[in-house]
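Quarterly update, task 2.4: magnesium ion-bound model.
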Amino acid sequence: VPLDRIRNFSIIAHIDHGKSTLADRLIQHTGAVTAREMKEQLLDNMELERERGITIKAQTVRLNYQAKDGLTYTLNLMDTPGHVDFAYEVSRSLAACEGSLLVVDASQGVEAQTLANVYQAIDANHEIVPVLNKIDLPAAEPDRVKQQIEDVIGLDASDAVMISAKTGLNIEGVLEAIVTRLPPPKGDVNATTKALLVDSWYDAYLGVVVLVRVKDGELRKGQRIRMMSNGSVHTIEQVGVFTPKMVPVDRLSPGEMGFVTAAIKTVADTNVGDTITDDRNPATEPLPGFKPSIPVVWCGLYPVDADDFEKLRESLAKLRLNDASFHYEPETSAALGFGYRCGFLGLLHLEIIQERLSREFDLDLIATAPSVVYKIRKTNGEEMELHNPADMPDGSVVDVIEEPWIKATIMVPDDYLGPVLTLCNERRGRQIELTYVGNRAMAVYRLPLNEVVFDFYDRLKSVSRGYASFDYQQDGYEEGDLVKISILVNAEPVDALSFMAHRSAADRRGRSICEKLKELIPRQLFKIPIQAAIGSRVIARETISALSKDVTAKCYGGDITRKRKLLEKQKEGKKRMRQFGKVEIPQSAFIAALKMD
Ligand code: GDP
Ligand code: MG
């Protein structure tokens, strides 16, 4: 395909503004799939994505479109994830394209992720076409939203494309805008081969599949390719495109997107952002890469039933095959036994992995409190990264602790601004900017990430009745007055419940977790003290009073089957308990205790 007949584009939008629906309509309109094959949200192919209505993995599809100028164009669409945790996947999708459709819900307007994504697209030098979606809704205010796009983003919105992705209204207008307003790719077929490795995943039949965007030269079957980051060499078995079905082709030329298989053993060998070149005629300089994904939130995952450890190990390995941004390493906890320390891009990522483990792999897990990565300098000059509060060295040998900060952008209707600012201040936030667009406020704050991983989204949603939108990026490390809070149940430390907190919040958090545990740990035959401590200093204490009661007492002499049932029920409950010294803590207590407020 000649370069001027190719358009590579992505769709960027705030979550729920209709990106996936529009992608489906474009696929349908260009006839890439028949009506019978067409399922809602074709690109969101993971069950979980579909259910939650979010897009996790970036997806791509090739469309053929006969334009009004009579020529047929190849349009490569990259779907991008909409959630903050996956900003990194957005950036690599954008690096593979020349233009973006900026979808804005005409009944909602510009939101925090609209802005975050649009800035990334501008950074990637994209041409951007604004698309106003959901104009079928009575609440749609296209003129107001156009004005907002101009005021807030500074993009000319006078010829924004007005559509309803739901009803299919003006999908043709979107396709024409792609062809006439987005630039074609550049590239040279005679230059040495350079292709961008956009993504990779494991396919049960094909092995590792690599998603590429060819910049120069070409990729074809039988070619020996070299990964520039590590020098590994592979022979291409298949090249192809997504229609969205995988269809083999002879070659991929400059400007084209598609897939390559090359008997690569594990996804870990394929680094996203890497440059693929020809082994016999290699490029000297790689393409400008993008930042690798670094896990920012860690937590421990332990099987409720210790017999499931092996199953957990296998399941994590399988998940990792499809998600190179997920990290894990073995860990042992005195309280929870053998498990894994797992690293995630953010809280949603953590939740998704946990849910997949329970749903797809049928695992019952205990997760420890999510923790960010602290940098510690000891008095002897030694430096370390702290992924797990349990590994915190004794306070006397710690010189400096640094914690990660973020820069957050929050957009919220004026009516709810007060409580949002209060929340940010409570979480040690520092205001950088507060501006208004109509009756919407945009607050930019620096916040410690540690204050955000504990239920910040939930609180933000609740204080704004769901109207606030939020986006963040990492913004360096800063020294902080941080302490490790240990939780002792019956005088025994429960390492899985220990957590890091700023000293100013330590008493409150310590008290709150003790109060919760008091409610959640069932009374036992003896009195149980529950304490929160910093080092040896106790900062909060609760006591669970003793109880003496035989569960079967009520039915003595009575119905034997009822008695047996009760005992069985009790046994069932036991499986979900963890024994700490003499005390049993139910799994639900862990989960609830680890949720901060
Ligand atoms: P995404 O998160 O940006 O991918 O958004 P989706 O495509 O999943 O759409 C979010 C919700 O908005 C879904 O319930 C869609 O059915 C709905 N939706 C998408 N486009 C339109 C539209 O043009 N009109 C209306 N009324 N609803 C739409
Ligand atoms: Mg979607």
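Highlight for this quarter: The longest helix spans residues 503-520.
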